[in-house]
Amino acid sequence: MNRWIIPGVFTAGCFALLLLSVSGSRARAADEPRRVPVLVELFTSQGCLSCPPADELLMRLDSEQPVQGALVIPLSEHVEHWNGQWHDPFSSAVFTDRQREYRRALATRALYTPQMVVDGRLQLIGSRQERAQATIAEALTLPKATLSVTADPNGNGSVSVSVTVSGITRLGPTHESALWVAITEDGLETEVKRGENAFRRLRHGAVVRTLRQLQTLPVPIPDHFAAATVVALEPEWRTERLRAVAFLQELSSRRVLGAAQRRVK
Fold first, then answer.
1. What pTM value is reported for the model?
2. How many domains does one find in the chain?
3. Residue 37 neighbours by CB distance under 10 Å
């Protein structure tokens, strides 16, 4: 049920086969074209009974990358709608407000969880695997800017994130846009004590720990630009599980013009 809220040891022969297999895998990897980044956002909640399958789907899309040509960049954004009997520890008003902005831009009749939004343009019920893969494939047909991101720990509980953007002109006309940076964490689990998922251990990947608008770009957007920021890390965040995600998004339409990710290390 979808949850809706109306807003307010080898032998020599085997060893040789193993070498051939590894060599072949490397050759195929070298021959593969560059995957196109597609930003996949999931609005979810630990208080929502129908959300755990969507959380699992988002993690599979990330680990398996099943859509040919696409690099799925996941963001798991926990909203506050279901913080009644159980308070979702990953929820934030930032994500609730972001989902409301998508409701306006995508003209959905209500807020609901789990909601998946692909490249800010297309939305679907977040647990539908075939539809998710088809929507990601559809997103590949649109031109994108090229982003690259670095994420270097400073040794003082913070990470320096640098972003470069190029290829804006191939997008055609654009409107006022913003450059966003998120820090996500994988491998998170919670023992839920109350609510619709009571007594279940829920797993989450790509949980957005922090999301910030780095800067707003004028019109026309420069074809090449760079930006940087320093993000403070909370002590409970596991650095080896963190990723920095950067994306460029139009403010009015909410369409994502390009995205990139990098492990923090």
1. 0.88
2. 1
3. 23
